[in-house]
Amino acid sequence: MTCRRHSSIEHALPSPGTAARGSVLADVLVAFAVAALSVASLSQATASARQAFGRAESRSSLIQAFEEHQGGFEGLMPGERRTAVYEGVRFEAEARRYAQSRIETDIAVSYDASRAASRPYSDEAVAFAMVRPDPSGAAGILVGGRLCAADMDADEPVGSYGFFASSSKAVRAHIVPVTLPIDPLLPLTDIAVHDGRAYVAADSAKRSDPDFIVADISDPSRPRIVGAIDTGPGIASIAVAGGHAFAASASAAAQLQSIRLSEAGPPVLEASYRLPLPEASTSPPHGTAIAYSRGIAYLGTDRWDGEELSAIDVSDPAAPAKVGGFETGGKINDIEALERAAYVAAADASQFRALDVSDPRSISLISAFSPSGWERQSGERVHSFEGRVSFGRTSGGFDIAADKELFVSAGEAFAGAASANMPGGVYGIASDRRRTIVATASFDKELTIYDAALSPASTREWPLPAAPQAMTCDRSTVYVLARTAPVIYEVTLSTSGNDAD
Q1: Phi, psi (5° rounding) for residue 483?
Q2: Reduced to 3 states, what is the DSSP secondary structure of residue 9?
Q3: Which residue, 25, 75, 255, 445, has fewest beta-carbon neighbours within 10 Å?
Q4: What phi and psi, each to the nearest 5 degrees, are found at residue 40?
Q5: pTM of the predicted model as reported, rounded to 2 decimal places
Q6: Domain extent listing, the chain
Q7: What totals of helices (H) and strands (E) does the chain contain, helices first?
Q8: Minimal CA–CA distance to 182: which of 448, 482, 428?
Q9: Does domain 147-494 have CATH number 3.40.630.30?
Q10: Span 23-133: which CATH code?
Q11: Is 85 left (phi over 0), alpha (psi -120 to 50) or beta?
């Protein structure tokens, strides 16, 4: 029985050969399973790779099309749009202003519907942004007399992480006075600055005094006069365009002066222009404001029986000629001219006007703004930056909180615009993408900086020794012209360092 029991146990256990065969079979089955999974994964990876390659090839085709045809969109001016289809590829382009001296053209490239049905991955699209100099602002030309940088801090590239991170920091101002070596009693009226040269207008009662001065202020501690001229009547406002300055003259004899500039010599009066009278008996006006855009000088005057805004063709600076105009019924104090629009600050009920000047021969009204208090306040300053429009006015001698002095709008219509109360009135405006910088006659607050939305919490204020007369930009630097002294305040901004004293 013992042997049978033992024998029976031996028969119940597999022999060594049987175990080996079972193990091999199991391994084969596992190998098949792994292989099947590998084939499936490889197939899936191959499909994904094929899809990625297909999309990459589709994008590459669009990029190649862009490289071949981008030249057809380089001439767009801000506000212009263009759509075109080249060999089944669709281009949609729109130009807008980049800061004040450049133009950005955004181009979307995709497959047109006519080609999409026959092409795999036809839903692909690519977008490009081209930034180029404004042809009316290249080669030293000042657009509207102000050239503000996209970011006044200039600490970080616009759009970078550092750019957005610094936006939460308080802005600081470093103010350096530049004292011009001229008669301290000479009444200065306007300023433009470019590449270390300041162009300053004056309106003196003395015939011997200059009314247009060119100063080298590249070294603020040692400014020097490089040229000056007496045009005769005195100048209220200037716009510098390339090798010329165009001046609004405070005279009835000639309202516009064309001045040729030179790097080596003094400025030269090239032409004096008198506005045509609507009737022989009409008393001529005085020039009060001027702006330049694309060969046209937009001249403003005080109130008279003719058009207070004149569009004057100065493409030949030696032979100005009026081509169009617009009647406001009130003195014009400031003008900002762009490609298709001109913004006007005036001393009548419509203190701000946006005018369509796409055809200077036929100027028409786009919109007008008459804020409360217009009966005693006067439109004083206008400024635009990448579609954001700012408007400032005088205080009228009274501080009425409901009658604001500063307005900032996202466009040309000021309904719902941001506003701020500035008791001293607004005498200069500059902007970048994050800020609105204001020169005001408010005591101890002559330089005031807000964010772009005029949020009260963003307000920073600095005193200037003298009340401001005018303000301009040159890239990342702001310049404030003093009203009662021959001084230009050079202002640089940062989000680090110490405040100005």
Answers
A1: -85, -35
A2: helix
A3: 25
A4: -65, -45
A5: 0.81
A6: 23-133, 147-494
A7: 4, 33
A8: 482
A9: no
A10: 3.30.1300
A11: beta
